[in-house]
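User: Could you walk me through two proteins back to back? I'd like the raw sequence and the structure tokens for each, with a short line separating them so I can tell where one ends and the next begins.

Assistant: Of course. Protein one, sequence then structure:
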Amino acid sequence: MTEPGASPEDPWVKVEYAYSDNSLDPDDEDSDYHQESYKESYKDRRRRAHTQAEQKRRDAIKRGYDDLQTIVPTCQQQDFSIGSQKLSKAIVLQKTIDYIQFLHKEKKKQEEEVSTLRKDVMALKIMKVNYEQIVKAHQDNPHEGEDQVSDQVKFNVFQGIMDSLFQSFNACISVASFQELSACVFSWIEEHCKPQTLREIVIGVLHQLKNQLY
């Protein structure tokens, strides 16, 4: 505050004005310095956190490729075209894709083999049932030989049964390839050689032969 009568041009007045200016306040300078230091510290922390996250991501990818090289057998085989060099990521991925495709083909092949074996088992079960019925029929008629028929009659019965079966066999079987032939044979057995179907065929043949004889 200026004294009465003091002129604005007085040097003492200028000094007083200078010290009263906020831009020269020492406390404000310290505040700006600490704020700038805080900003730099925050940026450093963010940069460090980003670097750590990126390193974790790279480590995870590296572990993934290492696991693939351990799991996939072809990655463990020596490739003489690249010598003793480490496998690149592109080669590891390609070998992994090839191995997965190989496993899919093997799985499909095994499923086809299992299906074929199941059909074989079904055919054997059908044959077993038929033989059991033949044995039972013989046991139920112990005096069957007393009214013996000629060999020609037996042949006619067999021929009638085979002719009937061959008609359905010829209509169902394809001979385009051996594999297709095998599949069709088992399918035909399951469909046309059921015990009930065979029984109906035999009854029809015997009835027809009986009419011819008597």
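----
Protein two, same layout:
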Amino acid sequence: MAFPQDVHVRICNQEIVKFDLEVKALIQDIGDCSGPLSALTELNTKVKEKFQQLRHRIQELEQSAKEQDKESEKQVLLQEVENHKKQMLRKTAKESLAQTSSAITENLMGISRMMSQQVQQSEEAMQTLVNSSRTILDANEEFKSMSGTIQLGRKLITKYNRRELTDKLLIFLALALFLATVLYIVKKRLFPFL
């Protein structure tokens, strides 16, 4: 017949093994997790909870070991407690690796978001450059057409200036001829003998 204390020790051992297996499974899930950061954080929280439960059960087992009447049973149980503590230390290292992995994943996601923002800004800058280039090309075409109009205007003004000079020369010659004719007529009427 089992004593209540022996039953308690067996239950503690079974629960320690159960929590140990659950922690191993959760750590494996963390290693396999490729999902969003929230899923990784949730797994990490579950691991912490299981570790708390595992520590509590190990402490209960240690307390039970100290309460044993027989020294041999006490030493066997204390040895089991030490083994469980050593295993828990190795799992704690895995937990810290999982936390480090979680932090690194979070940092990488932050970097990814920043890179995405930079790519978006680069695309916007590129679009602005394309629009500016198009505007400059349109202005250049307009300048070329205005340049052609200005050259045509310059040619017309030069032609007008030459025509004006020719007109002035013709007017001067016509005026000189008119004055010569008037002088000739006046001379013949006033001085017919000359």
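The chain has a mean pLDDT of 82.

Let me know if you want the two compared in more detail.
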